[in-house]
Amino acid sequence: MSSQKSKVNDFVVRFANVNGTGSASANFLFTKAIFRMGIPVTPKNIFPSNIQGLPTWYEVRISEKGYLGRREGIDLMVAVNPQSMLNDVKSVKAGGYFLYDSSKKLHAEYIREDINYIGIPLMQMCNDAYSDARQRQLFKNIIYVGALAALLDIDFKELEGLLADQFKGKEKLIPMNVKALQMGVDYIHSNFKYPLDIRVERRDLLGDSILMEGNAACGLGALYAGATVVAWYPITPSTSVVEAFGNYADEFRIDKITGKRNVAIIQAEDELAAIGMVIGANWNGARSFTATSGPGLSLMNEFLGLAYFAEVPTVLIDVQRSGPSTGMPTRTQQSDVLEAAYASHGDTKHVLLFPSTPKECFDLTVDSFDIAEQLQTPVILLTDLDLGMNDHCSAPLVWDDKREYNRGKVLNAEQLDKIEKFGRYLDVDGDGITYRTYPGTHPSKGSFFTRGTSRDEYAAYTEDSGAYERNMDRLIKKWNTAKNIVSPPQVYQEKNHSEIGILFFGTSQYAAEEAMDMLKDDGIVVDAIRIRAFPFNKTVEDFVNSHDSIFVIEQNRDGQMKSLLMIELEANADKFISVLNYDGMPITADNIIKQISGKLKLKTEKSLNS
Amino acid sequence: MTYIKPKFRHPELPKNKLGYSVDHYEGALSTLCAGCGHDSISAGIIQAAYELNIEPHRLAKLSGIGCSSKTPAYFLSNSHGFNSVHGRMPSVATGAAMANRDLTYFGVSGDGDTASIGMGQFVHVVRRNLNMTYIVMNNGCYGLTKGQDSATADQGSKNKSGNVNLFESIDLASLAIELGATFVAQSFSGDKSQLVPLIKAAMNHPGFAFINVISPCVTFNNNLGSTKSYDYVRDHVEATATIDFVPQMQEISVDYGKGTQKNVTMHDGSVLQLHKLAEEWDPLDRQSAMNAVINAKAKNEILTGLLYVNPDAHDLHHMIKTSDHPLNSLTKADLCPGSAILVDINAELR
């Protein structure tokens, strides 16, 4: 591990910035240049719930092996925030680098013997070169990116190319930015040995991958799926789902002749109204969705129960953040699993989908509209802040032009004419899914009363116990039908190799796959499955039943997925072992290994002794 | 007692332009208390829809929860209905209206459903000028839970149990005017001759049309001392004007004396004829409407009739520039950018 070579394309850089100083675009420039050099790269925003002034970090992992999860241990800290500097110094790995603004002398308390210091007088350079205060602030960021290019051997041409892309139409701005980059490069060339032992080397490891945020992919998926009514209430970290949808709609949903919009986006007064609008629109035959996060999901509970019971398709994208209550609103977690699965009072269960990449955000968002309309029920896409608000290397998005929207069982006027008596809740096909009509379809047939109260097969109000029970049982029949409609899990082996399995979902995939490689390096082979949907299908059930011990990796305190597996599969509680991470940061492979290996050792010893 | 409504109607019932007699607009038998004001309002809705030649299946009726919200089951059985959750009808109506701009949207709510649990959604649907009719069947109390005061009960009003309401009441009509509603009216369930033309005018208004209808609760709030009892309301009603709704193209023949009549031409050419106008009241002037309501209240009068109308208002669809085609009629070809565009989007993300 200590050889020079192992540090090529394998290190972590963290930027310590002040919120609202324009650092985000400079830092993204750094990430994207490495991406364009064909090297797997994973950035994470670690930001406060604040607009201006508080510390914010941007952490970039570069991994030749293609590991896209977070990794502990910082090899290079770019410290441009005095407020957090003391902690930033402490968080550098022994032997690592600390890049700082040397315009002022570093105080003794910031000096560690075991790390390397790279002082660049950023402020001084900016003050000398620029008179405008905002320029001084913005170009400081660009100068350090230039310095990093020299230190880490980033291809300068990639940075120039990115600036050209970024300032298309505002070409005037390009030379100023290139000049600032060059100032950084020149300073390193004149004052330091370069490149460092940690550095990048061009590769072709990314193929046709894209670099994208999950929220944008969800928004784009909804656009491709034909969503026309969007109702929402702003909440971090879901806001950019609807913003992305809106931006794409501005481009692709405006009628070229009339200038009118093939979309209605309503910013609602609260999350209750947002989901109400979505239900109203879906009831009336438009594809409609909302996006929210935990607190919004809590508020939407009552309406979700209505949509479940009245059987109105509903699509809800929940970008999870750290709860409970307001929790840590800008930190990630997978802690809405149980809340979403059983949202609302009474006996309810909801379809959940768990994407783990931007491509899956796109695909599963498209699917969620088909599934919701096929099943006439809410579908909740559970993503998280890490996936939603960070850029991820992802397979490119694909759309099959032959794909048709599956609108489910909807009767038109001609079909109604052929039916003697329309029964909205009559299970004609025996799969628990009944036929519906849109308002306005037929003058005398097919109208019905949608309600959250109990009703009979013909949608007439009833308090008859038999009718109520028949309806509740049919909903369970529909639930069983759903198992074969929702996305199947990803199974990592054709045949089981081990009595031990690991199970994970969503963004835990990155760290879990890396951990599996680490275990393999130690000669330990485990079986693995990635859950992509609830209800669990037969494959999930078989996986659980055919392993003695299953490590359930999830990013919450209470092992919510573990509980869901226990409840729904009626599996023995003893066989599940929770591997948890709930500090608000994306889970790491090291953390998984730390938790698993101790328990594995115990297990192996136990089985050897017995 | 039977809950099956007799289907027999007089064979020579008059028919409207669509060839429907009034029974085509009826609903299931009401299960509300005998004498409930709400049933009179339902009858008014049936009459208005019949006279306006509405295709019932081109109308969607929506409600929240409560006695009033049950009524959509009792009118227009050939229309789709949506009995949503308590206080949330406005949001469901908003989504529905966005999905299909070609239908008529008719919302029914109550004083609890609107002035308490649903206040948030009510004020925002007003702001958005959603193209719908919104009727509050206002009886000042909670019927289904047996007579608790609601937020529209007047201060000092006594309920059946003898309790006097301590709190200031919420005046929904003046609130709606304040919030920018573009059609605001007030009526009394016992005055069908006023209510029917108001409902017709409201349904024809190209924006948010609000009618607050005082509708006495015979069971829990019809006692002496209540300001929402039949007797009290009859004694204190004061009308802004007598109203006629004259559909487009129909000749206006009635002639009242000068100075007491005002014709308001609606967006589609139909006309609201207002006769015997109250003094110092101009239905096209918001401030004058507000003053009229406030002055009436000061005199312990319940001002009914049309209070305010802005016939040139732009509804939500107009404001957010949605397509003239109902959004729910658009197909994949209209909505999906296709694979070639996605190739370009991918390229931008590299």
How would you characterize the overall build of this protein?
- The complex is a heterodimer of chains A (610) and B (350).
- Helices cover 39% and strands 18% of the residues of chain A.
- With 610 residues, chain A is α/β, with parallel strands linked by helices.
- A seven-stranded mixed sheet of chain A has the order 9-8-10-11-13-12-19, sandwiched between helices. Chain A has a six-stranded mixed sheet with strand order 2-3-1-4-5-6. In chain A, strands 16-18-17-20-21 form a five-stranded mixed sheet, with helices on both faces.
- Chain A is globular and about 90 Å long.
- Chain B has 350 residues and is an alpha/beta fold.
- Chain B has one domain (22-321): Thiamin diphosphate (ThDP)-binding fold, Pyr/PP domains (Rossmann fold), CATH 3.40.50.970.
- Helix content of chain B is 29%, strand content 19%.
- Chain B is built from twelve helices and 13 strands.
- In chain B, the strands form three sheets. Chain B has an eight-stranded mixed sheet, with helices on both faces. A three-stranded antiparallel sheet of chain B has the order 10-12-11. Chain B has a two-stranded antiparallel sheet with strand order 5-6.
- The interface between A and B is large, with 74 and 59 residues.
- β15 (449-451) of chain A pairs parallel with β2 (80-83) of chain B.
Highlighted features:
heterodimer; A: 610 residues; alpha/beta; Pyruvate-ferredoxin Oxidoreductase, domain 3; Rossmann fold; 4 domains; seven-stranded mixed beta sheet; six-stranded mixed beta sheet; 19 helices; 21 strands; 39% helix; globular; disordered N terminus; B: 350 residues; eight-stranded mixed beta sheet; three-stranded antiparallel beta sheet; 12 helices
